């Protein structure tokens, strides 16, 4: 039971790490070359939390798997933020590939 709770906690940490990755990439954009102090400070905090949570997750999740999932969450989430909040264009092919990426991340979780 404790082992199950531990691995579940590691996956939650990994999910949060990926979400903080989305936050820090978004805050880089808002920082305007690190000239805006609040987005810059937010970037530092979000990046630190993302890496801290990734480190925690990879204690129980194999490093390569944890990194692949972290990157997948960050990439898909950042693409969606770009589209929804910054009006960046996404083609149907790009949307399809993001769906494949999300499916791969979910598949990696289900297989581990």
Write structural notes for this entry.
- This protein has 112 residues and is mainly α.
- The protein has one domain (2-111).
- Helices cover 84% and strands 0% of the residues.
- It has helices at 2-30, 37-57, 63-86, 92-111.
- Helix 1 (2-30) packs antiparallel against helix 2 (37-57) and helix 1 packs across helix 3.
- The longest helix has 29 residues, at 2-30.
- It starts with a helix and ends with a helix.
- The relative contact order is 0.15.
Task: Please outline what is shown here.
By secondary structure, the chain is mostly helical.
Secondary structure topology:
Elements lengths: L1 H29 L6 H21 L5 H24 L5 H20 L1
Annotation keywords:
flat; 112 residues; 0% strand
Number of helices: 4
Q: First CA to last CA: what distance?
A: 17 Å
- Specify the helix fraction band: over 70%
- Strand content range: under 5%
Q: How many beta-strand elements? A: 0
Mean pLDDT rating? 93
Q: Would you tell me the structural class of the helices and strands?
A: mainly alpha
Based on CA atoms alone, the radius of gyration comes out at 15 Å
